[in-house]
Amino acid sequence: MTSFRSDDVAGEAPPADAVAPRDSTADAPTSVARLNATIRDFVARWNTVWVEGEITSWNLRGGNVFARMKDTRSDAQVSLRVWSTVRARIPADLGVGDHVIAAVKADYFVKAGDFSFIVSSMKPVGLGDQLERLEKLRVQLRHEGLFAAERKKPLPFLPHVIGLITGERSDAEKDVHRNAELRWPHVRFRTEHAAVQGDRCVPETLAALERLDADPDVDVIVIARGGGDPQTLLGFSDERLIRAVAAARTPVVSAIGHENDHPLLDDVADLRASTPTDAAKRVVPDVGEQRALIAQLRSRATSRVSQRIAHDIAQLEQLRSRPVLRSPEPVIERRAQEVFLLAARGRDAVTRGVERAGRHTDELRASLRALSPAATLARGYAIAHLDGGVILRDAADAEAGTALTVTLDRGSIRATSEGEIGEGTAPVSE
Fold it and tell me: Is 224 buried (19+), middle (13-18) or exposed (0-12) by CB count in 10 A?
């Protein structure tokens, strides 16, 4: 493709005596013109490529178009220039938000030092192609488990604060606020405005989601938009947004309000509402219904308690009507006589037991006295001890001069052994 540029005007060529960029040094730098010309010559050797993306800017100036295109899955962007001769051959209704395929060739404008791509052909991507890509992505995300019911978080019964992501001054914002406040007048919102279509939709929605998810006061997040055609809802099927919603700690409600060809956000959200109004009804209870429920529960509780009290009173009256409770004196008198007899028997048994124990104790005491060493001493016997308290049992152990202690019935005396007595001497008998 050949096009006219102001850079090609005579006199724009770099000075021939300028140092080439590859030979430049601190003492011999190259010129800006020589540097830009070198870049242009290098870029001019690149071939034409086909690129796919979304138009984010489309400005018409003097028949030429100065545009920008962004990648549909990231924030990468490029500048495009469509000269009037090419513009006449492409669809006239192309504009911001369109998904297109373009044949582009890199170009570097020497005078401004501006890098861009010159468009030689451009055509819109069919909606069917885009929906086919979304279906493939839907299958992939479902296979990863992002749409599984068991990973969806339950919504709180009555959220303290509702986080709302929607377009500024949009009907969706008004619908959510109005219907939620009608159901629960004291409901609180933290609203984050974001673009709901175009190139700003995904980054602004992601930023708003991150801020609300980090707020500990926010109990549920609603992403709302008042419907639209599938083309304008593509931002709510962006893979980055889908994965961010799946990773959010706060429950997320999708309220895009589009029944057919619903975006992927509906599948990954913890709850899908058909419209922003439906979202307001799903995230807060109706105060009138809750009051009616409380009144019903109070009535049922009162009825149950009344029935229980009436039943207990009837049982008490039935017990009181029995003869034994109506006139308990005969029963008490009969039982009193039985208690008196049992007490008398108990006293007799205890008395006999004490007497038997006393007699047995006297017998044991007499036996103990008979066997006691004291009784033996009382009959005239004595016990001789050597020094150290050892009882003398053998006369041979007390040689002449051995000191002895002799214990009698009453008291003890000191004695000295004169040796063993001969065998002819008879012991003293009692």
Answer: buried
Q: Assess contact for 280 and 162: CB atoms under 8 A.
A: no
φ, ψ dihedrals at 60, nearest 5°: -95, 125
Phi and psi angles of residue 53, each rounded to the nearest 5 degrees, phi first: -175, -170
**Residues 158-205: pLDDT tens digits?**
999 999 999 998 999 999 999 999 999 999 999 999 998 877 889 999
Predicted confidence (pLDDT) per residue in 11-55, tens digit: 356 666 677 878 788 888 888 888 888 888 888 888 888 998 888
Select from 144, 198, 190, 192 the least CA-distant residue to 170.
192
Domains of the chain: 6-125 (2.40.50.140), 130-285 (3.40.50.261), 376-416 (no CATH)
How would you label 115-129 residue by residue, b for 16+ Cβ within 10 Å and e otherwise?
ebbbbbebebbeeee
Closest to 68 measured CA to CA, from 97, 31, 110? 97
Residue 239 CB neighbour total at 10 angstroms: 16
User: Nearest 5°: CA angle at 272, between 267 and 278?
Assistant: 160
Q: Give the C-alpha separation, 272 to 301, whole Å.
A: 36
Encoded tokens for 221: 């997040």
pTM assigned to the model: 0.49
DSSP summary character for residue 391:
B
Looking at residue 93, its amino acid is D
Instruction: Quote the tokens at residue 97.
Output: 């938000």
| H-helix or E-strand spanning residue 252 | strand 252-255
Distance from the Cα of residue 224 to its chain's centroid = 26
